[in-house]
Amino acid sequence: MRQALLILLSAVCIGVVLTAAEVAFTVHRKQTAAQSQLVQIMNLLEGPSRNALWNLDQTLADSIFGAATALESVGRVEIHDVSGTTFAATGEKPAMVSDFRRRMIAPYMTAERTLTRPGGTEVIGRLVLYLKPDSFIQDARATILGSVLLGLTRNLLLALLLSVIFHLFLTRPLIKLGRDLIRVKPDSPLANPIRVPRFHENDELGYVASRINELLAQLHRSQSELRRLATRDPLTNMPNRVLMTESLNGAVERAGQSGRALAVIFLDLDRFKHVNDSLGHAIGDALLRQVAERLQENLPAGHLAGRLGGDEFLIVLENMDGADEVTNLARRLLNALTRAYPIDGQILHVGASAGIAMYPGDGDDSISLMRHADVAMYAAKAMGGGTFKFFDRAMTERAMIILRTEASLRDALADDALHIHYQPKIDLETGAVAGAEALVRWNHAGRMISPAEFIPIAEETGLIIDLGYWVLTQVCRDTASWHRRLPGLSIAVNVSARQLAERDFADRAIAIVRRAGLSPSMFTLEVTESVVMRDVANQMVVLNTLRLAGFRIAVDDFGTGYSSLSYLRQLPVTMLKIDRSFVNDVPGDAAIAATVIALGKKLGLTTVAEGVETQEQYDWLRQEGCDQAQGYLISRPIPAMRFEKEFIDPNAGPLLRLVGTED
Asked: What's the distance, CA 516 to chain centroid?
């Protein structure tokens, strides 16, 4: 309606302008006609008036006037001589001053012409003619009024006609286009395409409708691509966390209705970080793609697998018969993932750990099922990886303990609330202090927390990396002055598997020691036998770098990891530590301890017995040729100041007496 009113108003305004132009043209035409009539009458009167004035013939003048006034349009005629005296005149001069309309037409109502002597050029007078304006005005008024009425009627009809035409062929199709646009659904633009208005297939409206449909098609393609990107992992093209969560929500709802078993498997690759760190992310990405392919190949139809991120995958198993079927399928998937991966000319071996949560016993929604499957997966990793575990409630309690311990340990690390204690090692031949092992201690909320409690959690959460650097930094700070007084003193620092797996561990360890103004040769890095044997090829590279820098390398708990002697010869090891479990058996069952001591002598390695608690053990070790010993018989781990006072101070001298079991 608004468009129709605008069209009507526009048409009326244009009509008014056209009507005004027509009126102006009519007035001009009437003025031209009056002027033409004036000229004609003057032409008729000029000759007789000249003769009458030249001959002073009043009778002729009267006859001229009579003939002139007989014309309806003539109002007055005047003949003046050369002096301006009126020779003859007839009629009344029209009054035009007070009437605006008459003033407007006065130039066309009056005429004056000079009279000359007949047959010559001598001026003898002038002729003045006045026409009556009334008839002209009435005629012009009637004509103008007719034009105005006709024009307005025509313009009104034209406006109405244009309004109807515009409404039918423009406004209504536009309204239909607008209604079609309202029906367009943002999530499915092509469900309700724009209809091209009838009779407008090949005009501008049809073009607009077609272009809108093209834009909707582009929007549909863009949204489809965005949906794919938002719900698909770009590396493997598997469903991502968003789509897996949506799918699991639907699976939970269906399982609740059908009563069939539903299982969620949370799967994480073992040693994947090492692949990324040692071979690069390109190889890691290729490995993830192959893992995705194997999961999809070995997963029966009707089940869904997706990648949550990194090396984490989620598998949703619907309509299962029970835990036995889930177990068989989980074992099948893990077996498929343990096969070798040929990538870029290399053969890689990785395993996987999996956690399983069942609906509804382990959770009645997607969030709890995924969380509990994740907890079970970490329990599988804690068992050494390469296996799977079903969730049980005890795992949740352990997970909460881990979270609380990790948070508290992070705070302690940030606040320097940890402490380093030192357990001395003595030379069994001389009784002098040969070194010490640095051991971290944590006093939390008034309770001394055992390293056996928080070190495994630090390992599991990765906090052991920051903790290890902190320990090495603190040890450098504590021992900076000890080496000047005891040049041969060697401080041992434990190194974890996670630390050795760090790409820049060797560089950072070397930098920490040198920044303290010390030499790496003053320190012994202790690595457990099981850690070394876990990934010999890569550990060897890191250990060689550390050994070349000057660090001494000790294999801790030797004899418990069943390491190959060929590997032991290749590794840059300088020291073997006999595990306390073997020391406890001497002198009664001393075969293993004696073998390790003999092996150390053959390989030119220093042997250290740990866990020495009795005089008999001490005497036997000394007699067998063990190089060093540490244990409660000598000293418990003690703070740095006490260690310095009792074992570094010049007054301490050689350790001629044993401290026994005193604190």
From this structure: 43
Angle (CA) 17 20 25, round 5°: 125
3-state SS, 509-540, equals HHHHHHHCCCCHHHEEEEEEHHHHHHCHHHHH
- For tokens 């005009």, name the residue: 203
192/190 Cα distance (integer angstroms)? 5
Can you list the positions of beta strands (E) in 118-204? 123-131
- Taking the mean position of all CA atoms in its chain, how far away is CA 231? 14
Beta-sheet pairing, 86-91 with 123-131: unpaired
Report pLDDT for 191.
63
Alpha-helical runs (H) found in 322-386 = 323-338, 366-382
**Torsional sign, CA 462, 467, 468, 473:** positive
451: three-class secondary structure by DSSP: helix
How far apart are the C-alpha atoms of 283 and 113, rounded to whole Å? 116
Q: Taking a C-beta distance cutoff of 8 angstroms, is the pair 649, 446 a contact?
A: no
Beta strand 628-630 pairing with 523-528: unpaired
Integer Cα distance of 127 and 50 in angstroms = 8
AA letter at 47:
G
- Locus of tokens 């409404």: 167
User: What is the side-by-side strand order in the sheet with 312-320?
Assistant: 304-309, 312-320, 261-270, 351-359, 388-390
Domains of the chain are: 2-153 (3.30.450), 184-231 (no CATH), 241-391 (3.30.70.270), 403-648 (3.20.20.450)
Tell how strand 575-578 and strand 552-558 pair up.
parallel
* Rounded-to-integer distance, Cα 451 and Cα 471, Å: 13
Beta bridge mates, 610: 630
Q: Which two tokens stand for residue 296?
A: 């999809």
Q: pLDDT for 268-279, tens place per residue?
A: 998 888 788 778
Q: Count of residues for the chain?
A: 663
Question: How would you write 29-66 as a 3-class SS string?
Answer: HHHHHHHHHHHHHHHHHHHHHHHHHHHCCHHHHHHHHH
Q: Return the pLDDT at 660.
A: 39
Q: For residues 66 and 58, give the distance between their C-alpha atoms in angstroms, rounded to a whole number.
A: 12
Predicted local confidence at residue 532, as pLDDT: 67
In the chain, the N- to C-terminal Cα span, in Å, equals 100
Residues of the chain with pLDDT under 50: 97-98, 654-663
Strands 341-343 and 346-348: antiparallel
Phi and psi at 194, nearest 5°, equal -75, 130
Other C-beta atoms lying within 10 Å of the C-beta of residue 242: 14
CB atoms within 10 A of CB 603: 13
Residue of 105, 56, 59, 65 lying closest to 85 (CA atoms):
56
Global pTM reads: 0.54
| Interval 456-509: pLDDT, tens | 888 877 889 999 999 999 999 999 888 888 888 899 999 988 888 888 899 999
Instruction: For tokens 């781990």, name the residue.
Output: 637
Structure tokens that stand for 209 in this block: 């409708």
Give CA–CA dist 158/162, Å, rounded: 6
Chain centroid to CA 24: 70
